[in-house]
Amino acid sequence: MGAIITLSILALVVLYLGLFKAKALLLPVSILGFLVAIGFLLNDWTADKGPLFSGMVHFDHYAIAFSVLCIVVTLCIFIISKGYFDEGGQVAEYYSLLIFSLTGAVLVNSYHNFSMLFLGIEIMSVALYILVGIRKRDKASNEAALKYFLMGAFSTGFLLFGIALLYGATGSFDLDEIKAYVVNNPHAISPLFYGGILLLIVGLTFKVGAAPFHFWTPDVYDGAPILITSYMSTVVKVASFAGLLRLFSYSLLPLQDFWEPVFLIIAIITLFIGNISAVMQSSFKRMLAYSSISHAGYMLFAIIAVGASSANSIFAYGLAYSLATIVAFTGLILVKKTTGSEHFEAFNGLGKRNPMLAFAMTVAMLSLAGIPLTAGFIGKFMMFSSVMEDYHIVLLILAVINAAIAVYYYLKVVVAMYFRDSEESCVNVQWNYSFVLLLAVGLTILIGVYPDCLLKLI
Fold this sequence. Notes:
Elements: H1 2-19, H2 26-44, H3 61-80, H4 91-110, H5 114-132, H6 139-170, H7 175-184, H8 191-208, H9 216-223, H10 226-251, H11 256-279, H12 284-299, H13 301-304, H14 310-339, H15 350-353, H16 355-369, H17 375-389, H18 393-419, H19 431-449, H20 452-455
């Protein structure tokens, strides 16, 4: 609980630092606050006290691992934000809103009561509605914010209606009470309960960007500032999947025969829509938006074949995907500063213009494609293994086909960097970008070569 309190206070402190024009302190204070929050979480690793505050939140190993991941990814985004947010002149507002959103993500990771799930999702989302459209003179940003807000509010209605139906059937918001209801009444479950599950699936799959509730993703990711897009495609997606898995692997597991076919259909649709759409993109940023949809399809495997290894599978995949995505968006920021373009052509000749950045981008693309010796391969291997153990052979075959499609559009970037010439000038990489690139690429390769550190973490 110390992490949530720390992040909440940190967001307010950062806001007041902006009010008093202490711009130079924003980044150091934010980084210090993140490290303190991580310290609280690591301290709780060996002191699991069970659900806290009348069962509202539970900081078990599961919640702590995903919360640390979310904070570390946000920390990396803050480090590369130095100089990026200055362009808009609203640096404190950017930082504060991102920290508030991160606080919501930690709540989603640790909820043990539906009221906390709803609060966490709304705190995480409302801040992003503002951040997506914070560039008031950018029409694309304004359009993206409006779409995200309207569709987000619509999906929240489904989520609330689903929670209300489950409450009507069980008389409780607590996950333990809901699980007890399912276990003790296997043949007398109210139709309201089944309806509530379906509505919850709609509301939660919207948050992770899974088809057919993905329509907001390409336009919002494309219109938002690049750093906000990187945050949404990593922290928000990982936290949403952590919340989704906690619900269906704990409280609703006895009803797996009911909801598993629904997730199976959603996963297949998501994979094909994400990958086929990504192939047709000429914008690198928009390609990453569609590819994030396909990655949501892979992460759904851990829920379809839910079991003891599902938490580790989603954590490993989320970590690998986050590391590679941070590198990809960092490279995009640097290339766009030089060329002013977000298209694949902007990367032409990058292998000669900046070999270090080109190498980092290559590792990121290979990891996203699931090529061996990268963390992305380990994540995909764990997802595919869970599906094989549950005998979803058709899903596995379709996933392999989609993985082959993904290799094509990820390698388009590599081809542009090393096999096409460009007259653009060299791409300069500041120390903060170099630090994040080195950290993310190093971890991607390290996990790909020595994956044992992830296999039994949670």
